[in-house]
Amino acid sequence: MTTYWARVLQNIWHIEANLTQLDGEFDLNFSVDGEQPAILKVMRADCDTDFIDLQCSALVYLSEHAPEIPIPRIIPTSQQQLFSHVKGPDGEDRVVWLQQKIQGQTYANFKPQNLSLISNIGQVVGAVDKAWQGFKHPALQRDFKWNLTTAEWISDELNIIDSAPKKALLSAIAEEFQALKPQLQALEQQAIHNDVNDYNIIVNGSLTHQAKVMGLIDLGDMCAGPRICNLAIACAYIVLGQTDPEKALESLVAGYHSKNPLTESELDMLWPLLKMRLAVSIVISSLMSKENPDDPYVVISQAPAWEFLLEHNVNQALIASRLKVACGFEISPQAANIRQWLNSERGNFAAILGQDLQDSKVKSLSVEISTCPQNPFDLTGKEAAELGGEYQADEGVWLGYYNEPRLVYTDDAFKKGVYKASNRRTVHIGVDAFGPAGLEVHTPMAAKVAFAEYRAANLDYGGMVILSHQTPAGDTFYTLYGHLDPQSIAHLSLGQALEKGQVFAALGDLSGNGGWNPHLHFQLALTTTGMGDDWPGVADPDDLPLFNAICPNPAALLNIADQKIQYTGTSKAQVLAKRQAHFGENLKLTYADPVMFLRGWRHHLFDEWGRPYLDSYNNVPHVGHAHPRIQAVAADQLLRMNSNTRYLHPAQTAFADKILSKMPSSLEVCFFVNSGTEANELALRLSRAHTGGKDIITPNHGYHGNTTGAIDISAYKFNAKGGSGQVDWVQLVEVADEYRGSYQKDDPDRATKYAALVDKAIQAIADAPDNRKLAGFIAETFPSVGGQIIPPQGYLAEVYAKIRAAGGVCIADEVQTAFGRLGEYYFAFEQQQVVPDIVVMGKPIGNGHPIGVLVTTKEIAESFAKGPEYFSTFGGSNLSCRIGKEVLDIVDDERLMENARIMGDKLRQGLRALQEKHPLIGDVRGYGLFIGLDLVLNQSSKQPATQVADYVKNRMREHRILMGTEGPADNILKIRPPLTIEAQDVEMVLQVMDEVLSEAACLLALN
After folding, report:
1. Dist CA 803 CA 782 (whole Å)
2. DSSP designation for 870
3. Are 139 and 228 spatial neighbours (Cβ–Cβ below 8 Å)?
4. Per-residue pLDDT at 784
5. Residue 858 in 3-state DSSP?
6. Can you tell me whether residue 285 is helix, strand or coil?
7. In whole angstroms, how far apart are CA 245 and each of 195, 228, 340, 613, 632?
8. What is the DSSP string of 663-678?
């Protein structure tokens, strides 16, 4: 068949090319390969010519009137016709036409379907609709089942739905549609695509460029209709499968509005029209299923629509409000007038707590200022009862900020996902007034009781009242009062009138106000449409535009200035700008979009808006961020003293005893410094003092710190762009990488062969003309910046033997691997079954406090002691020693080494399962919670997938998971979380990694 139509192509268009048949429901479609990629469309035998002329003319109109819009262009025949009539191989008359082939992927099969792309889809659909406002064609007037303006026909076909609840749902949708039909019919009609579904949108993107729409295809359902129908149809398909369909809807509609401004009345129709389109799709597919019972696809295609309609029970009025705000409209027609009136009356309202609040102090409970709760995932009853207690000494009532991000909202009701790092509501959209229980609450102006209830659940509102008010112009707004004494509101009844300044309630105590430190939660709402009686007093930071529009700053009703209670925390943009101004350019930030963190707890961090992030990257907080035992030890010691090692202190010897209890018996002398860098610098001095040599042998691409001496032995730095280059007293050997090195896993002698490379380095030192001498061998036991490398078993044993035979000492840099991170081993050198002469330890031992430790033999220490006095002002301070010992005690007491083994095994098993699914994963390696994921473009060639690794790292961060990259090609994902990580967090890493790797594969395939 393709040969026949290839001849037709040659005869009519004078194009010689190979054809590949594509899927099509009624017509034939062929991909035309060659210099001018195109789609040859062969219409069914009974196709109406006017219908083809409509499609071709519409595309030509767009190309002439809006050439910037991405849309396939018609390729005229050699006779300059839009289409042609030919005989098919069966002798039937066929209409054929040719259009440009758009390069890319259908949106349905494209990843990631992020909000930026969805916004671009909206822009393109809006631009097309705007351009087609002037397009006229007689064939636009079509009466067929997919015409949304006549979709009420489904009411007569609902018996096709077997499930009674599903049938009732579709019936309700149809009734809602019927109610808005008069409004719909009053709208202007124009040419619309009418089928902007996920298979008719072609997109393209890359690992480094945001995806965008390349074109809309398939005008087979084109007709005349209101533009809002076209937008609703696009929305109906875009929201399916989205984890946050409301945000997807916002992005699409706002994008459309930016190119083709909508009216508020149109936005009110969008949600019911969206649902009606899904209902039509379900009914049509059900009818088709009856006609073709053996076609499973017909029923399967219903699943996403049913899932959305059944499980996504959104308040339609709130959706309309959300869309209005997204498009820059007021939340209601009265909103601007209400705000203006409130502002004009500022100072004239009755004092709601019976006292002037203009001089009341405003105190912060923000993420940035407050440390409550200690565990941001579990506010305790005691913490709630004492909330703001640090400010209680101030006289009188004090206020809490409006729009303030807080971490005190830890109940499940505030969470928006299954993981701890999922979205949560954190931003307080009322104002708090803290005062004694029993303090009377007054109406700010005349009111009626709209709602009064006792909410007895722990950490709920307790006594809660909503009052309605009217401006002189008759505009209604509402105020909410929470944490009241339930007995004080028992007299209130629905509709009860209250006078200005009337006492109607009192602040509750712990027994009746939800368990909180006595205070009033006061909130203003310009509308309750879509809010009901359970207003959110706290919003998701990403939803602030919506909820700030509904519940603006209530300062006017308190007779105070807005700015007095408006939260203005530290701006990330300002911090970034100052950092760029005041710090060196080579002090780099992680991630394309840097993050600012203000709080931490265990293996999570919180940004300035209280958004939680899973920290699977930072190995410094070894026992978790903000560990209470470390806080207590540090505070206790700072209350006492903090001095240096010139004076005796039991903390010094206790710390040394703890470290040495974990060491082989031959390692018995400690040196305390402030970092791993200093410890490595000191290791060089000790090795030289003991051997009389200077030269060092070290694996390539190692890293040992940022001092001059440490950089000299760190190929990762001295060989980098702008680096100082290799000094003559350093010999490099190949890192023992059994995945991509010279000797790999299939070589049983790889350990011996890698170790033999040291012989050449030793000989180079011996052959040097200036009588140089070997001081030692230093290596990260498991090279981290080299790519989370696990050397082959026996490698270090052979290396150490060669080094010692040549008169050198063996230095193990355990900064990355010590203290139980490996799960099965306390130190990495244990896995290699060696005993170093010097062990260097660093950052994890301080859990964020700067500590470094060097442990060595008595003999080496004695050699060093023959030189000048050794002293470090802060190394081994009382504070550092107590913190360091406490960290090691916590590892033991909380069985964190065992947790590292269990969670590490779970994570590596999951990653290896992903490796079977994703060819981008070349190797999964590591022990415990020291894990490397080697990403490759080809599993056979092992070509490093550097751009993929960068993409994955940044996308994981967008999903609230912190991860880094390492390796000579920067293609290794390194996973080194605090040892506190839990099973749920591992599941999140695996689930998101699966999703992001699928995205990367999709983007690679398109380029």
Report:
1. 18
2. P
3. no
4. 96
5. helix
6. helix
7. 19, 18, 34, 22, 45
8. S-TT--EEEEESSHHH
pLDDT value, residue 392: 78
How many CB atoms sit inside 10 A of residue 513's CB? Answer: 29
Domains defined along the chain, listed by start: 2-101 (3.30.200.20), 121-129+140-326 (3.90.1200.10), 337-565 (2.70.70.10), 659-893 (3.40.640.10), 896-1005 (3.90.1150.10)
Strand partners, 29: 22, 41
Backbone angles phi, psi at 565, to 5 degrees: -115, 5
Instruction: Tell me phi and psi for residue 215, to 5 degrees.
Output: 170, 155
Among candidate residues 735, 726, 710, the one with its CA nearest the CA of residue 786: 735
Which helix (H) or strand (E) segment holds residue 193: the answer is: none
Of 943, 358, 921, 981, the closest CA to residue 621 belongs to: 981
Give SS3 for 215: strand
Amino acid at 640: R
State the Cα–Cα distance between residues 858 and 703, nearest whole angstrom.
Answer: 27
Mean pLDDT within 856-881: 96
Backbone torsions φ then ψ of 424, nearest 5 degrees: -150, 155
Contacts of range 369-372, beta carbons closer than 8 Å, 24 or more positions apart: 370/406, 370/407, 370/408, 371/599, 372/407, 372/408
Looking at the whole model, is its pTM more than 0.85?
yes
CA dist 218 → 25, 58, 105, 197, 901 (Å): 12, 12, 14, 10, 55
pLDDT at 843 over 80: yes
Of 252, 238, 403, 245, which is closest to residue 326 (Cα–Cα)? 252
Locate all alpha helices (DSSP H) within 20-80, ordered by sequence: 49-65
The neighbour count for residue 9, using CB atoms within 10 Å, is 20
- Maximal CA-CA distance, the chain: 105
At 699 the three-state DSSP class reads strand
Q: What does the alpha-carbon distance between residue 503 and residue 514 come to, in Å, rounded to a whole number?
A: 21
Q: Which two tokens stand for residue 650?
A: 């039991």
pLDDT tens string 530-543: 887 788 999 999 99
Per DSSP, the chain holds a count of helices (H) and strands (E) of 28, 38
The pairing of strands 774-780 and 809-813 is parallel
